Amino acid sequence: MYSLYYSPGAASLVVHWLLIELGVPHELRLVDTQAKQQKSPEYLALNPNGVVPTLVADGQPLYEAAALVLHLADRHAASGLAPAVDDPQRGEYLQWVLNLANTLQSPLRLWWYPQDLDAAPPEAVLDGARKRIEATWERLDAHLAARGPYLLGERPSAADFYLTMLMRWTRNMPRPGHDWPHLAALAQRMKQRPSFKALYEREGLTEWA
Ligand SMILES: N[C@@H](CCC(=O)N[C@@H](CS)C(=O)NCC(=O)O)C(=O)O
Predict the structure, then answer these.
(1) Residue 64: CB within 6 Å of ligand 1?
(2) Domain named GST C-terminal: which ranges (predicted)?
């Protein structure tokens, strides 16, 4: 049994989406990030970083969205969303998940929270983060053009769910991820999954449907 501490549209989204896609029993615990519930002593006892998501899996609290993506897809291997350890695509799959965490999620965090760096002026942080994000979209789009339609080629993996969430976050940026044609095509495919519709209903989301 899983319990997911989440906030609509946040980094918990990909974990929630996978829980639905995998069809595994879970319960949702809403964290009111506006009210700073993620900084409460009760929550910090689960996740000392004070961010969402936290996934409690069989009583063990776990955090870091990328790790949760990998963990869920491995634990529910019948889904085929993670190449097995001896699959020739395993290395590439791990590469993409870690690459997305480092080259997209990290600068996206700075885009949303420039105060993380305690820098003045924050505009310089925003500009640097935006450039890094756009350079990553360029590189990912070129990869998809050459080897797509998904990150691993013909079959979707958990990495594509993660990529779609990150693309969603840029929807109101000066140049959103879906501005690149092969990324847009991947997003369209992913959005057609019934689990995406269910996710939107459950999180009460409407933008970028
Ligand atoms: N590296 C973490 C980052 C999570 C993160 O930045 N979560 C944001 C929401 S998308 C959050 O909780 N923000 C509230 C805060 O920082 O206080 C992960 O991947 O789980």
Answers:
(1) yes
(2) 86-208
Indicate if ligand 1 lies below 6 Å from the C-beta of 52: yes
CATH of 90-193, one of 1.20.1050.10, 3.30.420.40, 3.20.20.150, 3.10.310.10: 1.20.1050.10
Q: Nearest residue CA, atom 12 of ligand 1?
A: 51
| Ligand 1 and 11: CB distance under 6 A | yes
Q: List Cβ<8 Å contacts ≥24 apart for 25-32.
A: 25/1, 26/1, 26/2, 27/1, 27/2, 27/3, 28/3, 28/4, 28/202, 29/3, 29/4, 29/5, 30/6, 31/5, 31/6, 31/7, 32/7
Give, using CA atoms, the residue closest to atom 17 of ligand 1: 51
Read off the pLDDT of residues 172-196 as tens digits, 9 standing for 90 and up: 999 999 999 999 999 999 999 999 9
User: For residue 146, how far is its CA from the centre of ligand 1 (angstroms)?
Assistant: 32
Whether ligand 1 lies within 6 angstroms of the CB of 165 is answered as no
CATH 3.40.30.10 fits 2-80+196-203, yes or no: yes
Whether ligand 1 lies within 6 angstroms of the CB of 106 is answered as no
